[in-house]
């Protein structure tokens, strides 16, 4: 018989009888997709693996505990033949042929009338990969092609914009602390599909260089704000671009809702009637200490961590932070935006009861190639910051957790 390529098709099996012969590992691998497709599955097999048995117990399939018998495939729309008895497999595929039931054979792809593709899913599409003909069948290769496509779509390295379902609007994407690998899979995909990206100074700036040339990249710090406040100007830019029917990504450092003013943007977009999705990000408050070898909690050392903004000094009337209470806590303090005010902060913590010997670490530009960790104590931190010229952005960690990890290489 001349070798023709298989004809790919998607079977809609909801409520339709599908017969599976053999309850071993092949059935175990294939049954979940048949169940997910809504098929009315009957398994014919004297034995089954514990997972297959569990599917029967859960009522997801009907299990007839016996060997294959002539007539089992009558009325079936589709069959999977996977018993350990070659004669039964041959007899069953002959029956399938007579009844014109498409059938997959686990033991003999040549004699099968259908092949199961390597499948994967990504945001509303199913990727199904088949080898062109029986001679070239190489299941590992088809699985590898499937994995490459699914992974590429998930992480945005394969760009396939949604044209029909893509709705204009804004995605507020947490970009993580700076390392381009630390953005979420969803964030990266949305970035790859954007028409316009409005980005902050912090976050994975390297990703911007990878965007296709038609994508308009706007530096949020450079948006002219004339009579507006900077934040209002950013909100207006988001609204304007979305109103032009564009797909806009607002790329922020860390997580949008951790000192990121993310909710102000969500509110402004809601008021303007513009759809907005929020994609959480890895906040620098946890990831930057972690990248420098500092756990924010540790068994027997710290049962809590508190993330605090240090952008205004403790004695500043605009401060919303109860520093005396923080001084009395025994857990970890993580301070963002605190480099300039760390002297005053350390002084206040000591004045309200924290030991001057409490370890402090400052991690500058965490997760990037320029990451630097400087250690001190509450008593010495102000002088250390000056002497070592520590600059923002830095995360400051105060507490015994600073000392629990292996000492960083000098
Ligand atoms: C305006 S806040 C934004 C925080 C961000 N939304 C987050 O969840 O990480 C900026 C502060 O985050 C900290 N920060 C952000 N990225 C950092 C990094 N890669 N290394 C050190 N500190 C960082 C610094 O304290 C910086 O001043």
UniProtKB/TrEMBL annotation:
Looking at the record, the residues that make up the Tetrapyrrole methylase domain are 170-381
Which InterPro entries does this entry report, sorted A to Z?
A: 4pyrrol_Mease (IPR000878), 4pyrrol_Methylase_sf (IPR035996), 4pyrrole_Mease_sub1 (IPR014777), 4pyrrole_Mease_sub2 (IPR014776), CobA/CysG_C (IPR006366), NAD(P)-bd_dom_sf (IPR036291), Siro_Cobalamin_biosynth (IPR050161), Sirohaem_synth (IPR012409)
Q: Signal peptide position in this chain?
A: none
Give GO terms: molecular function aspect only. Answer: NAD binding; precorrin-2 dehydrogenase activity; sirohydrochlorin ferrochelatase activity; uroporphyrin-III C-methyltransferase activity
Pfam family of the protein (one): TP_methylase
Sorted UniProt keywords: Cobalamin biosynthesis, Lyase, Methyltransferase, Multifunctional enzyme, NAD, Oxidoreductase, Porphyrin biosynthesis, S-adenosyl-L-methionine, Transferase
Keyword Flavoprotein in the entry? The reply is no
Pathway in which this enzyme or protein is active: Porphyrin-containing compound metabolism; siroheme biosynthesis; sirohydrochlorin from precorrin-2: step 1/1
- The highest taxon in the source lineage is Bacteria
Name the active site residues. Answer: 200, 222
Q: Which GO terms describe its biological process?
A: cobalamin biosynthetic process; methylation; siroheme biosynthetic process
EC code(s) of this entry? 1.3.1.76, 2.1.1.107, 4.99.1.4
Q: Which reaction does it catalyse?
A: precorrin-2 + NAD(+) = sirohydrochlorin + NADH + 2 H(+)
Protein family membership: Belongs to the precorrin methyltransferase family.
Put simply, this protein is called Uroporphyrin-III C-methyltransferase/precorrin-2 dehydrogenase/sirohydrochlorin ferrochelatase
Per the UniProt entry, what species is this protein from, by scientific name? Streptomyces griseochromogenes
């Amino acid at each position: 018989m001349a070798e023709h390529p298989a004809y790919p098709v998607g079977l809609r099996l909801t409520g339709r009888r599908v017969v599976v012969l053999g309850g071993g590992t092949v059935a175990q691998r294939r049954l979940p997709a048949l169940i997910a497709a809504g098929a009315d599955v009957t398994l014919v097999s004297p034995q089954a693996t514990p997972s297959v048995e569990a599917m029967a117990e859960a009522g997801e399939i009907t299990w007839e505990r016996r060997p294959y018998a002539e007539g089992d495939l009558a009325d079936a729309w589709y069959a999977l033949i996977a018993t350990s008895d070659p004669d039964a497999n041959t007899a069953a595929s002959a029956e399938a042929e007579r009844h014109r039931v498409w059938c997959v054979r686990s033991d003999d792809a040549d004699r099968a009338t259908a092949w199961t593709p390597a499948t994967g899913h990504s945001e509303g599409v199913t990727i199904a990969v088949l080898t062109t003909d029986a001679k070239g069948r190489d299941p590992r290769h088809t699985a590898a092609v499937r994995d490459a496509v699914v992974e590429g779509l998930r992480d945005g390295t394969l760009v396939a914009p949604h044209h029909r379902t893509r709705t204009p609007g804004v995605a507020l994407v947490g970009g993580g602390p700076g390392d381009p690998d630390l953005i979420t899979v969803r964030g990266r995909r949305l970035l790859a599909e954007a028409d316009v990206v409005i980005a902050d100074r912090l976050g994975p700036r390297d990703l911007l260089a990878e965007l296709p040339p038609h994508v308009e990249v706007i530096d949020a710090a450079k948006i002219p704000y004339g009579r507006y406040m900077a934040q209002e100007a950013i909100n207006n830019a988001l609204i304007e671009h979305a109103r032009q029917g564009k797909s806009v990504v607002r790329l922020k450092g860390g997580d949008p809702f951790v000192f990121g003013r993310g909710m102000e943007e969500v509110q402004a977009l809601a008021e303007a009637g513009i759809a907005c999705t929020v994609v959480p990000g890895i906040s620098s408050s946890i990831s930057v200490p972690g990248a420098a070898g500092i756990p924010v909690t540790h068994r027997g050392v710290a049962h809590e961590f508190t993330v605090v903004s240090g952008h205004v000094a403790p004695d500043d009337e605009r401060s919303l932070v109860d520093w005396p209470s923080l001084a009395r806590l025994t857990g970890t303090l993580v301070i963002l935006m605190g480099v300039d005010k760390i002297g005053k902060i350390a002084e206040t913590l000591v004045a309200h009861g924290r030991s001057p010997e409490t370890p402090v670490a400052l991690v500058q530009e965490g997760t990037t190639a320029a990451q630097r960790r400087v250690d001190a104590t509450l008593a010495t931190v102000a002088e250390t910051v000056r002497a070592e010229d520590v600059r923002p952005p830095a995360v400051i960690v105060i507490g015994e957790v600073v000392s629990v990890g292996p000492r960083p290489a000098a």
